[in-house]
Write a structure and sequence with these properties.
This protein is an alpha/beta fold. A 7-stranded mixed β-sheet has the order 1-9-6-2-5-3-4, sandwiched between helices. Strands 7-8 form a two-stranded antiparallel ribbon. α1 crosses α2. The longest helix has 23 residues.
Length: about 240
Amino acid sequence: MVREKGGFWVGVAAAIVYPMAAALGRRRTVHGERLPATGGALVVMNHVSHLDPCYDAVFVHSHGRVPHLLGKHSLWNVPIMGTILRGAKQIPVYRGTTDAQQSLRAAHEALASGQVVVIYPEGTITRDPDGWPMTSRTGVARLALQHDGPVVPVARWGTREIYDGYSKKFRPLPRKTVETRLGEPVDLSAYRDQPQTRALLREVTDLLMGEVKDLLADIRGERAPEGFYASAKNRDDN
C-alpha cells in the first residue's frame, strides 16, 4: 500500500489514536477497498459517540489516506489537542456563528486539493434513543455537489456501546467490536446541473444519509426505521 504523506503532526496524532482505539475495542472494516486510494473524496458518516472520530481517523489512515475530519471548534481550544488538530489540518466547525461558512470553505479547499474529508452531517451525536441517524444538515449536499470526486457513504457501529455521550456511561469491558462498513460511491450526476435550491439540498442530504442508514442496518442486522429522527435542537442551519 502506498501511504499518503501526512507530515509530523499526523504522525503524532496516529501515535495517540491507534493505541487508544486498540485499547478500547476491536476494529473491523468491511469493503475498505471502496475508499479511493488517491484523489479527493467525501466520506459521509453517522455519529453515535464522542469516540467516533478516533475510530474513523484510524479507519481512513489505516487505508493509506490522511483523514481530514470536521469537528466542533471548541476542541481547538483544548491545550495540546488543539495544537495537534491544527498541525494535522483538521477542520473546525463553527456552528451558529459568523464563521459558520468557514468550515465549508476549508472542506471545499481540502477536497479540491485531493484530500479525504470526513463529515458527520448530523452535526452532533444522534439523539435517537436507538442510535439511528437523525435529520442532517444540508452542508454535506453542498460539498458533494460542488466537487466531482466520489462521495462514499460509511456507517460505523459499536462506539456507543463503549461510551454513550448522553448517559455518560463508559463500558470498555467486555471488549466491544467497532465495525465500519463502506458503501459504493453515490452517483449524484442527476443532481449536479440543477439549481441548488433548499429542496434539492434536502433531497441529496437525505439520499446520502439514507445510504448510511442502510449500511448501519446491515451492521446491526436490523431493519432501519423510515425517515430520520427529528430533534428540536437539530436544526438545518447551514
